[in-house]
Amino acid sequence: MHMAFDDEGALYVTDSSGDTRKAPVQLEEPSHRVLRLVDCDGDGTYDESTVFADEVPFPEGVLVHEGAVYVGAPPHIWKFRDTDGDHIADERTVWFDGGSIENCGNDMHCDVFATLLDAAEISVPKSNGKNPVRGMSLLPYLVDSAVQPIPERTMVFELWGNIGVRKGNYKLWSDVGRNYSPDWPALAAELERTDLALYDLSKDSAEEHDLRTKVPEVYAEMKKELLSHLSQINSDYPGSTSSAGNPEKSKSTKNKTDPEPSKRPSRDQFFRSRDRNSDGFITLKEFIGNPKGRDMPALTKRFGKLDRDGDGKLQREEIK
What we know:
9 helices, globular, 25% helix, four-stranded antiparallel β-sheet, alpha+beta, 22% strand
């Protein structure tokens, strides 16, 4: 539940319906709401409740600014307005398009720190300790009521082997497992030989249609950009020993033998990496992960052997 007051003291509260269906289904059939609460007689108790906006997907934040109500509801930030004074939003627009609802965090995390500092009238530093501060303040786009659009940027996200790129309408993504983070050279090497999935989020928000072979030029460009980004990590940190920008070091590195392969993950590590929805079980789909280039029959057979009770789910103790 999230809430925010307007200038007249009305309280806007996000209200969850309790829907627990899969995210793509909820996106097609949104059932959450934003309520407007008013204390009419000033006794400290709300007397009036109005459904300000309904059919809202995943409300995760609300802000009232210059007569508009902004609601963070992945994959978008919505802008709601009541233009006729009946306390019900009759105008709703997508103020920020996050595109996807899976494996991306809505591409906004890097901007939160800079926005909060800007709102507190604190200059955004170039670095936070040794870490360069990336991202941009979204405050100017709030102040002008979203008259000017947020500029398009290439965004890279990575979390324990879930890694991808968002650029325009396209998202490039893969799950390569937890063995590599934060060994960036090893991760880049694994991605180099991995077929990633490519989605057009403007037409496929549920990420069901892989376009890797349909638009190979987009795929190649975005994968190249991702690998370039990984090669630059730590290069701008003070005291960095990265070989980025140092041709001699890079050249000498190429002549060395490949490093020993990463150790096989423990049972707990494997279980955590595959149990993506943290429900305590691993389904066949979670067990297989990214099916591209993998031996599906062999993996399915392996899953069947591990699933000793035949319920279609693997518990931690069933993993060998």
